[in-house]
Amino acid sequence: MVEEMRRVIDYFDWKTHWWSEQGKARTDLDIDIADGIKAYAAKQGYINQQLASSFASKWCKVLVANDFPVEWPDRYNSLNLLADFAQEGDE
């Protein structure tokens, strides 16, 4: 289960970067079309990054509460997530 969680976070992280590259891939287009493609790619990258952050935020709390390691990229494993969880436990 923990490995599957890590893989989901890694996939969304990879897909975020993949979309970033897609926005720059075509150089043979009119400026308006190129700008539209860049905007679409940026939006898709943002969506994937938000999915990774959302899942990491929810899963981190469960994993830490049950003494499982959190082994996904550090940007999704911030001290804020752990601090938020610690505060909730104090209430």
Model description:
- The chain has helices at residues 2-22, 31-65, 79-90.
- The model has no long low-confidence stretch (mean pLDDT 83).
- It is elongated.
- The chain has 91 residues and is mainly alpha-helical.
- The two termini are 28 Å apart.
- It has one domain (2-90).
- The chain has three helices and no strands.
- Helix 1 packs antiparallel against helix 2 (31-65).
Mean pLDDT: 83
Query: Could you spell the SSE succession in H and E letters?
Result: HHH
Q: Given the structure, what is the number of helices?
A: 3
**End-to-end Cα distance:** 28 Å
Q: Please compute the radius of gyration using only Cα atoms.
A: 17 Å
Number of domain modules:
1
Shape: elongated
Number of strands: 0
Compact overview of the structure:
The chain has 91 residues and is mainly alpha-helical. The protein has 3 helices and no strands.
Question: What labels describe this entry?
Answer:
mainly alpha, 91 residues, single chain
What is the topological layout?
Blueprint: H1 2-22, H2 31-65, H3 79-90
Helix pairs in contact: 1-2
